[in-house]
Structure formats: C-alpha cells, structure tokens
C-alpha cells in the first residue's frame, strides 16, 4: 500500500502526512475519473454498481486502470503547495496519505516532487477515516505524525495526530482543535453567488429572449401568449443552465489546458463535481416536468434540444464543421420553441435568415478558439476536430454565411408576410446594412484576436452592439408607424 524505507518511521520529528482529495487539490480524483470515463467510454459506467459492490477501494482501482489523468492539469491549492515546499526546505519528511488509488497518487507525487513516501488505497483497503488513522498510528509509531486534511472523515485521523493542519472552514478547524493541537489553518471560502451564476452561465439567458421573437415578428402582444412565453423563457433557462454544467464537467480536463476556459468554475475547482451534478439534475428535472405541463410540443422540443446538446458534448463537437452547424441550430431551437408555445407560424424566409445568421456567429466563435489555442489544437487536445490551418477556411465560410444571411434578410423584409404587418415596410431594408455591419464587426474582432467569448455574450457588454440594437429598433418603429407618402 505504500513505498518507503523501513527506517524512516523511526525519525524523531513528526512526519507531515497530507491528504489529497480536497486538501492538496480542489476536488476529488474519484469523480474526476468518473467524468473521464463518461466522456471516453460512457457505457463502461454501467459497471460502476458492480465495482462498488466489491468496495470503494476496488471501484477506485478499476477506474484508475481505465483512465489517464494528467497530474499537471489538476487544481492544486497554492497555499498548501507553498507550505509543503517550506517544510521540505527545512528537511522535514512529508508523506502523501490518501484514499485515492495508489496509481494516481504516485503519479501526482512524482510530478510534484515534495513527497518522501506515498500511501494510498490499493484495491482492497480504502485508506480513509478510521482505516487511515489506524494505518498512520502503526506506520509512524516511533516518531508520530502531523496530519493535513479537510473533511469530517479526517477527524478520526487528527485524533491520533500530534498536530492538525486544516484546510477548510472555521467549523472544520474547531473540530480538529477539539481532538489535537491546531498548528495551521488554511481557510477556504464558500462558493459565492457570482461563481454559481458563472457556472450556470446566467449571462447566456439573454439567448432565451429568442423565445419571444415569434410573438414580436407576428405583432402578437396579447397577455396570454406573452405569459406562456415568459414561463417558457424560465424553463428553457433552467434546461440550458443544467446542460451548460454537464458540458463543463465533460470538458473539465480539456478546459484546464485552454487559455481562458481554465477560469471556469468547474475547471478551476471552485465548485465540486458532485455539487455540479446535483444542481444540473435538479434544474433539468424542473425544466422537463414544467415544459410538458406548459405544452406537450414545447416539452418535446426541450427534450430534443437537450438530447442534441448531450450528443454535441459527447461526440458531435469533435466533428469538424458539423459542430458549428449543430451549435448554430441551438439558437434556432429557441425560436422554434417560442413559436410552439405561442402557436405562431414562422416565415420560411426568416428561418433561412436565422440559419445563416447564427451559423456566422458559430463560425466566429470556433475561429476565435482556433486563433487563441494554437498549441492546444496542434497537440490534438482541444476536444475539436480542427487543425490550426483550418482557420482560413472557417473565416471564408463564416464571412460567406454573413453575406448570405443579409441577402436572405433583404428578401424577407420584402416578402408578402412582412408587408401586411407594417405601414411602411420599405424602411425595413435599412436593417440589412445594420446587420451586415454588426456581423462584419464580429469577424473583425475575431480576426484581430479580440473575440474571446461567444459573440452573443460579447454583445451583452458591448456598447456598439447596444447602438446597433437601438438603430434597429428605430428602423422597425419607423416602418410600423411612419405613413407612406
């Protein structure tokens, strides 16, 4: 179960024993392995209950033998590492003692280079809680040990330690101080609301305003359809947020290698994997149940959106070009869902316009990612099916989609369906240069390397985009109320 010279336990200075999950790293290797297996071989997860029946240590061994976690891309606690390096500089012996599987623990110890010995679960014994306490009491009977941990199960270990190093809340520090001497306390903060909003992609809820678009296009501003669309807006937001969490969890390891995605709450270890899964399941359950209560058609549309999103997260995002077509379809799903809720017919011209409009945005997003993650793309670790030299093709296709959308918009605003709704429909043609300018500007920002997020997300904080929106509103108002001469 461990590797060390027999005489080391006889040293007089207490050995500093350090826990791994939640202490040395933010997160838990068991859950990291589950996510890796889910993404690489999802059907293998059906074996989890059978493995668990043979004990948690056996489960961890089976997972560790099937996945490869890169120690360089785990979320280490900087304060803990700094403390360990200080202790190491003072010639203190340090042991990594963890309930994680030995194969993973030894890989992490070899990467960090601060541990003198490693003790971990071995497929039979789960080295946690009382089992860890008994092992350390026997292993270091001569010199004793100090213990650094973070969880309630570590209280049993602190009880047998000479001193406690606590990583966690003040309540956890009090628990440790009640059973032994408290040497060091590294306080960890609770997850803030802002962090949760980022994880839920709260700013992406603006995309769900597309559900109201069919009502706006048909000039149907009666109370009942607006109320139903408002409920649909919330339910779609719950569904999308739950799916965003699942997507971030599945992309956890590739995001940690990305220039800016590494700052996402799950990739940075700010929110634990079990918390994320729990919130995701809750949001999706509310969304699906509520959508079928609202409308069977809307419920089916939401289930279809969720299924396509999961296919995208697991497989389709790896297929070059197909991924951007699927990505752009998510916007169209919102428009169609809004039409189903309000029982509004959509013009075929408008559907064609939205197809090319959102395809341009999806191409810009992917182009920007290729521009900012050259090394990741070149190494094949980006999770996408592109090569670095595909950028120019995406640029051409994206700009082509931009002009196609504007051409179709010009045909749409002169269609019979539109002309009957406006007093002066000829003014609507001014929307064409406005839309062309906004899409072209997105591509200019992408080409300059200044588009580091979803274009729709950028628009929420972009003054120029607000100006474009106001100009568009003025044109629509003029076409609605200005009388023809």
Alpha carbon gyration radius: 28 Å
Distance between the termini: 90 Å
Largest sheet: 7 strands, mixed
Query: What is the number of helical segments per DSSP (H or I, 4+ residues)?
Result: 22
Tell me the strand percentage band.
Answer: 5-15%
Helix content: 55-70%
Roughly what is the average pLDDT, rounded to an integer?
Answer: 90
Q: Can you count the beta strands? A: 7
CATH domain topology of the domain at 2-187: Rossmann fold
Overview of the structural elements:
This protein has 485 residues and is an alpha/beta fold. Among the domains are: 2-187, HAD superfamily/HAD-like (Rossmann fold); 347-485. The protein is built from 22 helices and seven strands. Strands 1-4-3-2-5-6-7 form a seven-stranded mixed β-sheet, with helices on both faces. The longest helix is centred in the middle third of the chain and has 28 residues, at 223-250. It starts with a strand and ends with a helix.
Question: Can you describe this structure in just a few lines?
Answer:
With 485 residues, this protein is α/β, with parallel strands linked by helices.
Which characteristics define this entry?
22 helices, disordered N terminus, Rossmann fold, 485 residues, alpha/beta, single chain, elongated, seven-stranded mixed β-sheet
List strands and helices in order, with pairings.
Layout: E1 2-3, E2 15-18, H1 29-40, H2 48-53, H3 56-66, H4 78-89, E3 94-101, H5 102-112, E4 117-121, H6 130-139, E5 145-149, H7 155-160, E6 163-168, H8 170-177, E7 181-187, H9 193-199, H10 213-218, H11 223-250, H12 252-255, H13 273-294, H14 296-314, H15 322-342, H16 348-372, H17 374-378, H18 391-412, H19 416-419, H20 431-447, H21 455-460, H22 463-481
Parallel strand pairs: 2-3, 2-5, 3-4, 5-6, 6-7
Antiparallel strand pairs: 1-4
């Amino acid at each position: 179960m461990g590797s060390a010279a027999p005489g080391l336990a006889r040293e007089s200075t207490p050995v500093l024993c350090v826990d791994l999950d939640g202490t040395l790293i933010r997160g838990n290797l068991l859950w990291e392995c589950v996510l890796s297996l889910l993404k690489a071989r999802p059907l293998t997860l059906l074996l989890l209950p059978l493995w668990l029946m043979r004990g948690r240590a056996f489960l961890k061994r089976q997972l560790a033998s099937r996945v490869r976690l890169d120690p360089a891309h785990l979320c280490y606690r900087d304060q803990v590492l700094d403390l360990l390096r200080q202790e190491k500089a003072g010639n203190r012996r340090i042991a990594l003692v963890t309930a994680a599987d030995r194969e993973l623990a030894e890989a992490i110890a070899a990467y960090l280079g601060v541990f003198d010995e490693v003790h971990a679960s071995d497929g039979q014994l789960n080295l946690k809680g009382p089992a860890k306490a008994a092992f350390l009491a026997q292993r270091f009977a001569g010199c004793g040990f100090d213990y650094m941990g973070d969880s309630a199960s570590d209280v049993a270990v602190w009880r047998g330690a000479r001193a406690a190093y606590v990583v966690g809340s003040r309540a956890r520090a009090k628990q440790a101080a009640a059973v032994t001497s408290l040497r060091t306390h590294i306080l960890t903060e609770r997850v803030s609301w802002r962090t949760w909003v980022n994880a839920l992609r709260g700013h992406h809820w603006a995309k769900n305003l597309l559900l109201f678009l069919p009502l706006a296009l048909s000039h149907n501003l009666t109370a009942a359809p607006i109320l139903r669309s408002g409920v649909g807006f919330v339910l779609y937001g719950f569904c999308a947020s739950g799916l965003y969490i699942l997507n971030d969890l599945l992309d956890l390891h590739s995001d940690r290698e990305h220039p800016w995605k590494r700052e996402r709450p799950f990739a940075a270890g700010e929110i634990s994997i079990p918390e994320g899964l729990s919130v995701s399941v809750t949001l999706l359950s509310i969304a699906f149940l509520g959508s079928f209560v609202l409308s069977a058609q809307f419920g089916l549309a939401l289930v279809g959106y969720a299924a396509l999103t999961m296919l995208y997260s697991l497989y389709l995002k790896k297929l070059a070009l197909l991924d951007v077509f699927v990505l752009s379809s998510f916007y169209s799903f919102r428009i169609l869902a809004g039409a189903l809720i309000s029982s509004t017919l959509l013009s075929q011209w408008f559907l064609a316009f939205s197809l090319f409009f959102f395809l341009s945005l999806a191409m810009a997003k992917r182009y920007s990612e290729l521009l900012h993650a050259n090394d990741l793309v070149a190494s094949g670790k980006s999770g996408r099916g592109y090569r670095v030299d595909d950028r120019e093709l995406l640029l051409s296709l994206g700009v082509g989609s931009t002009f196609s959308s504007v051409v179709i918009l010009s045909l749409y605003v002169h269609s019979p369906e539109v002309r009957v709704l406006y007093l002066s429909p000829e003014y609507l043609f001014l929307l064409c240069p406005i839309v062309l300018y906004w899409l072209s500007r997105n591509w200019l920002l992408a080409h300059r390397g200044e588009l580091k997020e979803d274009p729709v997300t950028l628009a929420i904080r972009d003054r120029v985009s607000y100006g474009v929106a106001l100009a568009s509103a003025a044109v629509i108002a003029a076409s609605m109320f200005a009388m023809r001469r």
